[in-house]
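Weekly puzzle thread! Below is a chain. First person to post its structure in token form gets bragging rights.
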Amino acid sequence: MSTFWSIWISVIVLGTVFGCWWLLYATRKSQTSDTETDRTMGHSFDGIEEYDNPLPKWWFYLFLATCIFALGYLALYPGLGNFKGLLGWTSTNQWEAEVQQADAKYGELYAEFGETPVEELAENDDAMKMGQRLFANNCATCHGSAGRGSLGFPNLTDDDWLYGGDPDSILTTLHEGRNGNMPAMGTMPNMTSEQVDQVVNFVLSYSGREKDAEAAEKGEEVFAQACVACHGDDGKGNQDLGAPNLTDDTWLYGSTYDWIKETVVNGRQNQMPAQGGRLTDDQIQILAGYVYSLAN
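Winning reply:
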């Protein structure tokens, strides 16, 4: 933060505190007596009138105490521009301290589960309770609290996996992340609108849903040029590349003619962020066990 903005913020904050202090004294001195009177302010609503009486002393002193507390807080903690406070507190320092406390408290338990194979963890109730919390904090935003995914985010509870659902594949995904890339027009960037229609119909023909049988027949040749490199001759995909199976009823972005056409024309880019570095190896081991348990 620049010096100008630091001073600007400090002036506003301190001005507000001292302004409240002044307002309390100014309004109290303007009243002629600390005793109650029958004089009103001229305000009346529903038979209730506002009297011109001073604040009760306990209330007045409570407001003053609030101002004093505010000044003390601003002296000890950050709140005045670049001034870091006498205690040197930061949210980062507090977070690191809490992480250290958690590691000291749960590290041994994490380490015990970290040495356990994924398949065994999936059958351990205590490990799965921990795994569920790790999943809720790190994965549920994309995959949903139940792991069923949504448009563009894979369902983790079925047996259809882009990169494999065995323990080693899940661990690799969690540690390193995944970057999915479906290029527009596949490997045939000069694909015409007619050829797009043909290849979409061909893909739909895998499940007998093509709109135009003649176009689907011609689309096989387009598929061979634009799609086979990733999805294979039979359209069943390639887990090494993260290329999905086009012959089943599991679709990441929808399986209608319009959805598939949009995928072909514009391509798709997906990223699964790496958890390595964010979570410890032991935590990832437990999380992998939980993810594995969702589909097994």
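Puzzle host: Confirmed. Bonus trivia for everyone else. Strands lie at 40-45, 48-51, 178-182, 268-272.
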